[in-house]
Automatic annotation (TrEMBL):
<keyword id="KW-0256">Endoplasmic reticulum</keyword>
<dbReference type="InterPro" id="IPR039417">
    <property type="entry name" value="Peptidase_C1A_papain-like"/>
</dbReference>
<dbReference type="InterPro" id="IPR025661">
    <property type="entry name" value="Pept_asp_AS"/>
</dbReference>
<dbReference type="InterPro" id="IPR025660">
    <property type="entry name" value="Pept_his_AS"/>
</dbReference>
<feature type="domain" description="Peptidase C1A papain C-terminal">
    <location>
        <begin position="128"/>
        <end position="356"/>
    </location>
</feature>
<keyword id="KW-0788">Thiol protease</keyword>
<dbReference type="InterPro" id="IPR000668">
    <property type="entry name" value="Peptidase_C1A_C"/>
</dbReference>
<keyword id="KW-0732">Signal</keyword>
<dbReference type="InterPro" id="IPR013128">
    <property type="entry name" value="Peptidase_C1A"/>
</dbReference>
<keyword id="KW-1015">Disulfide bond</keyword>
<protein>
    <recommendedName>
        <fullName>Cathepsin W</fullName>
    </recommendedName>
</protein>
<keyword id="KW-0378">Hydrolase</keyword>
<comment type="similarity">
    <text>Belongs to the peptidase C1 family.</text>
</comment>
<dbReference type="Pfam" id="PF08246">
    <property type="entry name" value="Inhibitor_I29"/>
</dbReference>
<keyword id="KW-0645">Protease</keyword>
<keyword id="KW-0325">Glycoprotein</keyword>
<dbReference type="GO" id="GO:0005783">
    <property type="term" value="C:endoplasmic reticulum"/>
</dbReference>
Length: 370
């Protein structure tokens, strides 16, 4: 944590000082000596995230990309309407194009599969609590995973959804195989992206899902080597549904039934550090969703007093969603992030999908009378 604080401090010095004038073009690295602050920030970034480069030319190129990302982070900081902080992250030496190629999932939007939305149900309860955080209930939310260089967010979100729903209904904690979903999916190309609904259909077709311990994650897919029949199933689903695009209905289901999967626009996440992202449709288009995550809770940030014109004014608290990501615990808020609740931030209401779990029904034995 101390290193991250130093990085943030140096970022302020770099962005507010000479970097704006120096880093004004993609080829700026060859125009003279680098600012000392930037070199130090980049060196610390390499240490913290274990980065090394094959040659001096590649090092210089990554330094240039790093500088532009810090300036972009500063711009996002100024544009955000919430409490989000942007700066150095594990992805600060990647271009936006590289980040999209590694972590984007344009197939996540749902393809041509049509699902009827569930508008609401009396079984979900009438009142929505002020706060909800399923992380606080033991055995429901599994540890943060890292998809690495595999576009498996869809499989990780789906597995996380089933884990949570299974834990709530059966009171048994399970950690499920993401690799089985990658290897055995019908429509996805494994690490080339996939669909939430395809993951659920895979579980139905395979009559359950194996454990992570038995069928561990490899960070690469083997689509022609589905090993589903080899391992014992530890969780099952009966079907899956898509909820209404109404945030209050989503909140009610989340509070009374458990975590669900959502598909969002990840545009602001490359540089995200902490806080509540309150984006506009310009900075984070709600129609261009390309990343699947697990929605685990909601709440409100504490109101803070602000001083202006010599007077002290109370500010309003910020409502937010809590989401579980799949980029490791060193990203964001220990692997999680928060989006503003009530403004369809980054398209969170576009595809809210959840499995409904249950044990398989035992078939009754038919005996012919003598």
């Amino acid at each position: 944590m101390a290193l991250t604080a130093q990085l943030s401090c140096l970022l302020v010095l770099m962005v507010s000082g000479q970097a704006h004038g120096f880093w004004n073009s993609p080829g700026a690295q060859g125009s003279g000596p680098q600012p000392l602050e930037l070199k130090e920030v980049f060196k610390m970034f390499q240490i913290q995230f274990n980065r090394s480069y094959s040659n001096p030319t590649e090092h210089a190129r990554r330094l240039d990309i790093f500088a532009h990302n810090l300036i972009r982070a500063q711009r996002l900081q100024e544009e955000d309407l919430g409490t989000a902080e942007f700066g150095v992250t594990p992805f600060s030496d990647l271009t936006e194009e590289e980040f999209d190629q590694l972590y984007g999932n344009w197939r996540a939007a749902g393809g041509d599969f049509s699902m009827e939305r569930k508008v609401g149900s009396e079984d979900w309860g009438e009142l929505v609590p002020h706060t909800c955080d399923w992380r606080k209930k033991p055995g429901i939310i599994s540890p943060i995973k890292n998809q690495e260089n595999c576009q498996s967010c869809w499989a990780m979100a789906a597995a996380g959804n089933i884990e949570a729903q299974w834990g709530i209904k059966s009171h048994q904690s399970v950690e499920l195989s993401v690799q089985e979903l990658l290897d055995c999916g019908r429509c996805g190309d494994g690490c080339q992206g996939g669909f939430i609904w395809d993951a659920f259909i895979t579980v139905l077709n395979n009559s359950g899902l194996a454990s992570e311990k038995d069928y561990p994650y490899l960070g690469r897919a083997k689509p022609n080597r589905c090993l589903a029949k080899k391992y014992t199933k530890v969780a099952w689903i009966q079907d899956f549904i898509m909820l209404s695009d109404n945030e209050e209905i989503i909140a009610r289901y989340l509070a009374t039934q458990g975590p669900i999967t959502v598909t969002i626009n990840k545009a602001l996440l490359q540089n995200y550090q902490r806080g509540v992202i309150k984006a506009t449709s310009t900075t984070c288009d709600p129609q261009l969703v390309d990343h699947c995550v697990l929605l685990v809770g909601f709440g409100k940030s504490k109101a803070e007093k602000t001083v202006s014109s010599g007077s002290c004014h109370p500010s309003r608290s910020t409502p937010f969603w809590i989401l579980k990501n799949s980029w490791g615990a060193h990203w964001g808020e220990k692997g999680y992030f928060r989006l503003h609740k009530g403004s369809n931030a980054c398209g969170i209401t576009k595809y809210p999908i959840t499995a409904r779990v249950d044990r398989p029904v035992k078939k009754q034995q038919v005996i012919c009378p003598p």
